[in-house]
Amino acid sequence: MSESTSEAVRGAIVADPVAWADPGQIEDVLAGLRREDPVSWVEIPGYNPFWLVTRHADVMAVERNAELFTSGERVLLQSADQDDARRNGPLKSLIDMDGAEHRTHRAVTNDWFKPGRIRSREEAVTAEARRTVDELIERGGECDFAEVIAQFPLRVVLSILGLPPEKSSWVQQMTQEVFGATDPDMRRGGDLGQSYRETMREVLTYFMGLTADRQKNPNDDLASVIANADIGEAERLSYYGLIATAGHDTTSYSITGGMAALLENPDQLALLRRDPEALTDAVEEMLRWSSPVRGFLRTAQRDTEVGGVPIKAGQSLLLSFLSANRDEAAFEEPTRFDITRARNRHVAFGFGPHACLGAHLARLEMKVFFTELLSRIDEIELAGEPAFAQAVIVSGIKRLPVRYKERQTA
C-alpha cells in the first residue's frame, strides 16, 4: 500500500459532499493524485477503505475485466453501515449484479434502449424538448436553467415507463432524496439515515402498487415489461427505481453542465451556432466535461495489480470517472472545453458490461434539446454563479441562473 499519508488524506476528499460543491478544488486534488499517486489507498473514519483509481487507462483496465473486478460486494461510495445495509438488504439492483445474473436482468429491458428503438422515439423526445424551451421562454427572459431543464429528461423517462405525467414532481423529489440526500437543499430534513429510509419506503410502496396494476392490466410500456418479467420481486422493485431515478438526473446534470460550459466559453457557443453539425461531438464533450456519475466501486476477486500497484483479493477500488475524463494522458488539453475534440474516449457512461443502459437515450435527449434551444434562443448568458450539488455519487450544477432572448421571426 501507499506509504503516503498525505495522499490518503487528499483522496478522502471524494467522500466529502461539501467538497463536491467546489469542483475546482476536487479537480485539483484529482490532478495531483494522477501525477503522484494514481492508485492511492484511502482510509476514512466510518467508511470501508478503498483504492482510489484516477487515471483513464487504469479505470478502463478495471472496467474491461468485470470477472476480476466485480460490483456485487460494493458499488456506491457510502458509509460502512450503509455498505452493510445494502449488501444484506432485501433489494438487489442491476448495478449490484455480476456475470450471468447481470446479463439476465439487463436483458429484460435492453431492447428498449438499443439505438433503433431510441431513434423511433425521436419525435416524442423532440416534442418534449420543444415544450421545455417553451417553458424557458414563458419565464420571461431570466430563470434557473437547471430547474426548468430537470423536467425534460424526467418527462421522457416517465413516458417510457408509462407513469402518469403528474408523478414527475414526486419522482424528481425521490431522486434528489436518494442520490442527493447529503445536500441540505435536496433531502426532506432530519437525520440523514432516517430521511433515506423514509424515501425508500415511499418509493417501494409506490412501485409495489405499480407492479400489481401492470400484472393485472399489462400494456405496451416499460413498467409492464418489468412487472411481468421472470425475475424476483425485490429485483423488480429495484429495476423500477433504477430507471425512474438514474434515468433522468444524470441527463439533466449533463445538459445543465454543457450549457454552463458553453456560456463560460462563448467561442464554443458561437462555433456551435455557426456549425450545427458540430452538435454530435459537442454532446460528447459536454458528457466528458460534466461527468455526473462521479465514480463506482469494484472489488478484486483475487490478488492482482492495477497501474503497477498490488491489489489484494477483497479490496475495493473507486473508479473516478471525473478524474479519468480529465486525464492528460487520454485527452489533449483536458481542462479545456472543446466541442471539436476528436476521439473523445470519455467514460461518463462507464464502460464494459455495466456501461449505462440509457446512454443512447441520453445522447438523443441532449442533441434534440440543444438543437431546439439554439434555433429559438438568440442570446443567452449567465445571470449569476452556478451552484453545485453537495453529493458524492451523482452530482453537478443544481442552480444555473441565466438571461436570454427569444429569437424574433419575421
Structure notes:
By secondary structure, the protein is of the alpha+beta class. It has a single domain (5-36, 49-166, 246-406), classed as Cytochrome p450. It has helices spanning 5-11, 23-36, 56-64, 80-88, 99-110, 115-119, 122-138, 145-149, 151-161, 168-179, 192-216, 222-227, 233-264, 266-274, 279-290, 321-324, 359-376, and strands at residues 39-42, 50-53, 69-70, 142-144, 295-300, 304-306, 309-311, 316-320, 377-382, 387-388, 397-399, 401-406. The radius of gyration is 21 Å and the shape is globular. Mean pLDDT is 91; it is low at 1-5. This is Cytochrome P450.
Give a short summary of the structure.
This protein has 410 residues and is of the alpha+beta class.
Keywords:
410 residues, alpha+beta, 5-stranded mixed β-sheet, 3-stranded antiparallel β-sheet, 17 helices, 12 strands, disordered N terminus
**Count of separate structural domains:** 1
Please name the fourth-level CATH homologous superfamily.
Answer: Cytochrome P450
Stretches where pLDDT is under 50 for at least 5 consecutive residues are 1-5
Count the strands?
12
